[in-house]
Prior knowledge:
Elements: E1 7-12, E2 22-23, E3 30-37, H1 46-57, E4 60-68, E5 76-80, H2 84-97, E6 115-117, E7 129-132, E8 134-140, E9 150-156
Antiparallel strand pairs: 1-3, 1-8, 2-9, 4-5, 4-7, 5-6, 8-9
Helix pairs in contact: 1-2
Amino acid sequence: MAAPLNHTTLALTPHRYPDGYESPKVPAHITVIPWFKSSILERPGVQDRMDIIMECAGVLSLQADELIEVGNSLPARRIRGGGLNWLHSTLYGELLSAGAKFSDPQWLGKNYTPHITMKPEDDIAKAVDMHFDEIAYIHNVAQDNSRGIKVFQYAPLGTMVEV
């Protein structure tokens, strides 16, 4: 990869892409943590603590629910299910304590609204039940978050705790 990784988001992707997969845009996904500077992951201990959090999360069984509006013009479906809010708030707390700055802080913590955007090219948001045993690190090589190549890496969600 020629360019450095500048921004990262953590998401659940209904379709599994190969590690290192590159795409000009982010496909259908459920945001767990919005974009933040990738360099925060290089600070001592941060990635290790995030790995432990993900190991504790267990496999997530989620359901798409009613249509909602969230900050953009595309319709979205609310996502419900055990463990997702815990995973979000615990990862958010870890990254915040490490000094991360987020692109959309208004959607973090108590304002977190798990959803999947219904993009015209994707019909995945019509699924009712979804199960995730991995979380995607989606890295953007652009200086801003809107354009650039997105590179995918996955990390397992463990089974230490059944949620």
